[in-house]
Amino acid sequence: MGRVLLVEDSVECRILVQNALEGYAELVVAADLKGAEQLVSQQKFDLLIVDVDLPDGDGFGFCARLLAEKGAARPRLLFLSGKGALADKLTGFSVGADDYLVKPLDALELRARVQAHLRHAQDSAALAQTLCAGNLRLELGTHRVFVGEGPGAQELELTRAEFKLLTHLLRKEGQVFTREQLKNIGSGKTHVTDRTVDAHLCRLRKKLSSCTHTVEPVYGLGYRLVPREAPREVRDSVPAIDKKYLQELEGLNARGGADLICQLASYFLEAGPAEVRSILAALEASDGERLRREAHAWKSTCLNMGASRMAEVCRELEEGAEGFSLEAARALRERLEREHESVRRELREIVRARGGGTALK
Predict the structure, then answer these.
(1) Domain extent for 89
(2) What is the pLDDT of residues 140-181, one digit of tens each?
């Protein structure tokens, strides 16, 4: 039941409004602007019904100031007035009114209009308490999460930690959050390890297997919520080869010895096509155990080479196999092939620049 503030000095009018709204709204009454101002500062209302001519001032001016202060959180506003001229109505709407009724009032019309405004206020409040991305809907007020559209939407069973993590990621879709940033969000405890965060997000990704969005690990950085088939410019924000990792490998090169970066690149370029074919074959055969094994092995190779984006794809394939979500894993086929080509292209350039021509096949 919505809350309504009636600002009216006429006793007869107050009685009419009270009778019309009894059982339909929670009505609070103020006889003047001073009383109304005090009530509005202390309580929250869904609708204001304000008389234009009041003993201590002008209802138009009072509401104009109030709506300016409230901003987007403003209640809906219905003016009551004995003045029915077009100029008076236009003045009311110009200061922010949602409705304007001319006295004498009809009880049934007043009730119908108030019910319509309260429905609008409730719908707006519900919308403000809902976060959406694709076919994912999270309701803050009820702590419920749904995947799908309309009556057929599936409700997900999330733990408290998973709900809090998803809420944080959903509020800023696409933004990367480090494990350190996510630690206290998920558990609320002081001492939480990176493994705990990873475990929460791993389970959350599996529960979102039928969703248009997923929690994506960003190698060396953290996690973000993105569409499963994100536009290329979003995924390409992380380079195919992590140059910082190559700099670390550079420091391991022994003076006068073999070029470690060229050695790793050569292995990747030579073994890559066969490894990718093996992963694709496991996908085609719907062999979850083989897919998990092959994706895990190639993920490790990608991480050693600094191929961060391809490692992410392998990680998703591995988890899809563990959760027997082979249909979701097949959707990653094109990404796997595309990332493989991107990595090979960058590695050829790196090796060429270092003078390692033997790895340019």
Answers:
(1) 3-128
(2) 878 889 998 777 888 999 998 899 999 989 888 888 888 888
DSSP 233-260: HHHTTS-SS-HHHHHHHHHHPPTTS--H
CATH of the domain at 319: 1.20.120.160
pLDDT in tens, 247-265: 766 666 655 555 777 888 8
Asked if 227 and 136 touch (Cβ cutoff 8 Å), the reply is no
> Around Cβ 240, how many Cβ atoms within 10 Å?
20
> Percent helix, strand, coil in the chain (nearest 5)?
55, 15, 25
Same domain, 255 and 327: yes
Name, in order, each residue with C-beta under 8 angstroms of 109's C-beta and a sequence gap of 6 or more.
101
Each residue of 276-289: b (16+ CB within 10 Å) or e?
bebbbebbeeeebe
pTM as predicted: 0.43
* Same domain assignment for residues 78 and 139: no
- Domains of the chain: total: 3
Instruction: Give the whole-angstrom CA distance, residue 328 versus residue 79.
Output: 55
